[in-house]
Amino acid sequence: MAKILITGGRGFIGTNLTNELRSRGHDVWTSDILQGEHTQHLKADTGVFQQMDSIFKQYRFDYVYHLASEYGRWNGEDHYENLWRTNVIGTKNMLRLQEQHRFRMVFFSSAEVYGDYDGLMSEDVMERIPIKQMNDYAITKWAGELQCLNHAAMFGVEVVRVRPVGCYGPHEYYSRYRGVIPIFVYHCLMNKPFTVYRGHKRIFDYVEDTCRTFANIVDSFIPGEVYNIGGKEEWIIGIEDLAYIILKETRASPSLAIFKEGENFTTRMKMVDFSKSRRDLKHNPKIEIHEGIRRYVEWMKKIYDL
Fold first, then answer.
1. Which residues contact residue 180 at a Cβ distance below 8 angstroms, ignoring those fewer than 6 apart?
2. CA 269 to CA 267: how far, in whole Å?
3. Are the C-beta atoms of residues 270 and 138 closer than 8 Å to each other?
4. What was the pLDDT predicted at 74?
5. Using an 8 Å Cβ cutoff, are 135 and 76 in contact?
6. What's this model's pTM, rounded to 2 decimal places?
7. Can you tell me the distance from the alpha carbon of 93 to that of 69, in angstroms, rounded to the nearest whole number?
8. For FRET with 177, which of 5, 134, 135, 137 sits at 20 to 30 Å CA-CA?
9. Residue 169: which region, alpha, beta or left (left: phi > 0; alpha: psi -120 to 50)?
10. Are the C-beta atoms of residues 230 and 210 closer than 8 Å to each other?
11. For residue 139, how far is the Cα from the chain centroid?
C-alpha cells in the first residue's frame, strides 16, 4: 500500500478522500491550516514553504494529493490575497518540494478553468481554443495547471491534474462562498430565502462517487494526464429543477426561492465529457441527484441539530 499525504485534508473533499483511501489500506497523512486530532494530521500552510518543507524533512511520501486551496468565485474577490497565496504560491511550493523528494502528485484544479466556453468541455479544449477564465478563482486554478506542466517539462516531476465538477455531500459545511447545493439546502432548513438564477445547467456528483475515482488514481497513475471528474453527462440539470428537488426534500416553503434571470460572470451551461476518467480511472458514479440530496439533507440536519 502507498504512503500518501493529502494537503487540505481537513476540508470537504479532503476529509472524504482521506476516509476512502484509508478504507483501502493506504497509509494516509493529512496537512491543513486547521488543527486536527488524528495522530497522522500535521498543521501546516502550503503557502509557507518552511512549514511544508519541515514535513518532507521528517516523512517520505509516495503520493501527494494537493487539494489545499481557497475555494470560490466570490471568496476570491473578497479574500484575494489568501486566494493567490494559497492557490498559486502554495502550488509552487509543492512543486519545488516535488523536485527534491520526487513523490507523485495529483493536482486539484477545477472545471472553472473552462471559463466562458459553452461547448462540450473535454480535457483538450485548452489546447485548441483560447479560453477566458471568468474570475480570479478560475485563473488561479489554470495558473496551477500551467505550473504543473512547466515543472514536468523542466524538472521531470510526475503530476496528474484533475478538474472536479459539481461535487457535493457530507462534510461540506455551509458558508455564503460555497456551491449552490449547500447554500440552497442550508437556507431551506433554516427557513431563509435564497436566489435561484434561471437558465443555468450543471452536472453534480455526490462526493462518495467522486472520491472513489480520485482514490483510483493511485492504481492508474499516468503522468501528464488531466481528467474531468464529476457525474454522468446525462445527469445535467437546470438550477431551477435543482431548487425544486431541494425544496421538496427539506419540506421548505416554495416561497423561499426567489427566481431571477441568469447570473453574470458564470457559465450558463456546463456540458462536461467524462469519458477519459471512465476509461483510465474506472469512474462510475452511482448516486444520482435525488438520492444524493436526500443523503446530504440528512447529514446537514444532524450537523446543525435540526
1. 202, 239, 242
2. 6
3. no
4. 82
5. yes
6. 0.95
7. 13
8. 5
9. left
10. yes
11. 15
